[in-house]
Amino acid sequence: MGKLQLLSATLAIFLSAIAIPTTFVDAVAVGSVVTPAFFNRILSQAGTGCKGKTFYTRAALLTAARAYPRFGNLDTALWSKREIAAFFAHVTHETGHFCYVEEIARNTYCSPSSQYPCAPGKKYYGRGPIQLTWNYNYGACGKANNFDGLKNPDIVAKNAVIAWKTGLWFWMKSVRPVVKQGFGATIRRVNGGECNGGSPAAVAARVKYYRAYCRSFGITPGPNISC
């Protein structure tokens, strides 16, 4: 056996002995699922006067997603696509099809915290694709993504990459752990006050978007999709 044949045989034996995890085999590239056509269909439904229509971009999303490589990588291609569909269902609802960058009712949302104290004169109302809210979330998210969320919360409404990172940070921290419980569980994590009759119309809207995006991705929505 020649050296090249020996090397090939050795490599084949080595690879056959490795148990490659399904998270590697079935991972999906976010950019291959969130195509320009998919992204633009959502964006096109925002009014012409919406700030988010020019603020939220697919390029900024994909840049931000590189900081969260496990997003869209949930054991199988099916669950990975369900996660992406769920994320965009909530983003669509929270931003009005990418219309809103900042919450309309701009309250202070300051909770006493020794770790993440509110900065004088700053407000921590909803900003970004998941509408990041409260000082402790701005503080923790900023620390994880290298910006000062306490002293400069407004950067979330000015830098599109940071805005997407806040959405992905909240998602991976608070929502990702329950994705496999069904879309209904993700609603509880994003805005649990809507569940159990709190706001049936809001729940129905989120579910409608989720079903539509699952159809776009060619997958079934799975069980327990409401709350």
UniProtKB/TrEMBL annotation:
It catalyses: Random endo-hydrolysis of N-acetyl-beta-D-glucosaminide (1->4)-beta-linkages in chitin and chitodextrins. Disulfide bonds join 50-99, 110-118, 195-227. CDD domains: chitinase_GH19. The active site is at residue 94. Its EC number is 3.2.1.14. Residues 1-19 form the signal peptide. It holds the Pfam family Glyco_hydro_19. One of its GO terms (molecular function) is endochitinase activity. Keywords: Carbohydrate metabolism, Chitin degradation, Chitin-binding, Disulfide bond, Glycosidase, Hydrolase, Plant defense, Polysaccharide degradation, Signal. The keyword tRNA processing does not apply. InterPro entries: Glyco_hydro_19, Glyco_hydro_19_cat, Lysozyme-like_dom_sf. One of its GO terms (biological process) is chitin catabolic process. Residues 34-175 form the Glycoside hydrolase family 19 catalytic domain. PANTHER family: CHITINASE FAMILY PROTEIN, CHITINASE-RELATED. Belongs to the glycosyl hydrolase 19 family. Chitinase class I subfamily. This is chitinase. The lineage of its organism: Eukaryota, Viridiplantae, Streptophyta, Embryophyta, Tracheophyta.
